[in-house]
Amino acid sequence: MKQLPVGKRVRVRVPATSANLGPGFDTLGIALAIHDELEFETLEAGKLEFDITGVGADSVPQTEEHLVIRALKYSLEQLGYAMPGIRMHADNIIPHGRGMGSSGAAIVAGVVAAAGLVAPERTVTSDELLALATDLEGHPDNVAPCLFGGLTIAWMDAENQPRSKQLMVDRGVSVLVLVPEERMSTEVARSLQPEQVPHADAIFNLSRSALLIAALTQSPDVLFDATEDRLHQTYRASAMPQTAELVRVLRDAGFAAVVSGAGPSVLVLCQDPGARLRAAELAKTQNATWQALMTAVDVQGATVETVAETVESPRA
Ligand SMILES: Nc1ncnc2c1ncn2[C@@H]1O[C@H](COP(=O)(O)OP(=O)(O)O)[C@@H](O)[C@H]1O
Ligand SMILES: N[C@@H](CCOP(=O)(O)O)C(=O)O
């Protein structure tokens, strides 16, 4: 295994994501302009230092089990480098366990930090970044938009390797995420999915997800029909009744509302900013409290930059 020098520093920025978008289970996702920012510095092997502010500061493990550190170690080892000691500062904004891709973003942060630390000696390709992140996340629909920005279609190819196609979202689409206080573990939500689904439901989702690509890239007028789903939301509804109820209320009022990721947040794709305000007002009439995040689509995806190396002051 190759060794990294002590004192190498990289700065990373990763966006939140909303996956599925209704019919595109495990396939479609958009990056959101809500970001975690992290900085890494290599130390002598064996040392691990954390400075975490914001979301998760009191709850995420400050050990080798930290998800970002696990992703960094996995990625470095896959790239042929030994895990060095690490000092990590993280300023977290993305809510955890709300269906806004926090785990995908944490994994991508570790993966792109590894890519930044091995550069310029080793160039890590986009395909490699996606493969590393998907290995860890288990499905590509959050990590693809997190890595590349915009709207992504992700799939597994014949060799079971993740692939993705990035598209730009039409400027007429406004995004609202309604975030509840309760959490929902993606792992638990996935356990509620059946092994098999009716053929008619598969056809239903095929038509809607194809239509959704048109709606998001050029024809926002068909967003409502394009966001219908029969493959995941109903199976998970009993685990998040308030989410299911809010989606129902919003859709009854004509809004293209879906469960964001595995929930429990609700994503509303609006044809104009006025509709977004009206949807947020409607959410206020519900029993549960929903934080309204009026955000934009992130078009940049994850970024990593090298920070000037730490220079020891010369001894007098
Ligand atoms: N920035 C982070 N740092 C460390 N761990 C994180 C971070 N973001 C997410 N996680 C881990 O992932 C969990 C949430 O993952 P998950 O259930 O998939 O929900 P989400 O929809 O937010 O991705 C958190 O409880 C935490 O254990
Ligand atoms: N396709 C996945 C998406 C999970 O997204 P997250 O933001 O909740 O992690 C699923 O629906 O299980």
UniProtKB/TrEMBL annotation:
Domain of life from the UniProt record = Bacteria
| EC code(s) of this entry | 2.7.1.39
Q: Which UniProt keywords apply?
A: Amino-acid biosynthesis, ATP-binding, Cytoplasm, Kinase, Nucleotide-binding, Threonine biosynthesis, Transferase
Keyword Amino-acid biosynthesis in the entry? The reply is: yes
Task: List the pathway annotation.
Answer: Amino-acid biosynthesis; L-threonine biosynthesis; L-threonine from L-aspartate: step 4/5
Secretion signal: which residues? none
Protein name as catalogued: Homoserine kinase
Q: Where in the cell is it found?
A: Cytoplasm
Instruction: Quote the catalytic activity from the record.
Output: L-homoserine + ATP = O-phospho-L-homoserine + ADP + H(+)
List of residues binding ATP: P95, H96, G97, R98, G99, M100, G101, S102, S103, G104, A105
Classification via SUPFAM superfamilies: GHMP Kinase, C-terminal domain, Ribosomal protein S5 domain 2-like
Instruction: Name the HAMAP family on file.
Output: Homoser_kinase
An example of a Pfam family matching this protein is GHMP_kinases_C
Q: Which GO terms describe its molecular function?
A: homoserine kinase activity
Segments forming domain GHMP kinase C-terminal: 229-280
Q: What does this protein do?
A: Catalyzes the ATP-dependent phosphorylation of L-homoserine to L-homoserine phosphate.
Member of which family? Belongs to the GHMP kinase family. Homoserine kinase subfamily.
Note the InterPro entries from the entry: GHMP_kinase_C_dom, GHMP_kinase_C_sf, GHMP_kinase_N_dom, GHMP_knse_ATP-bd_CS, Homoserine_kinase, Ribosomal_Su5_D2-typ_SF, Ribsml_uS5_D2-typ_fold_subgr
Record-annotated GHMP kinase N-terminal domain positions: 67-150
Q: Which organism is it from?
A: Gulosibacter bifidus
* NCBIfam families linked: thrB (TIGR00191)
Q: What class of enzyme is it?
A: transferase
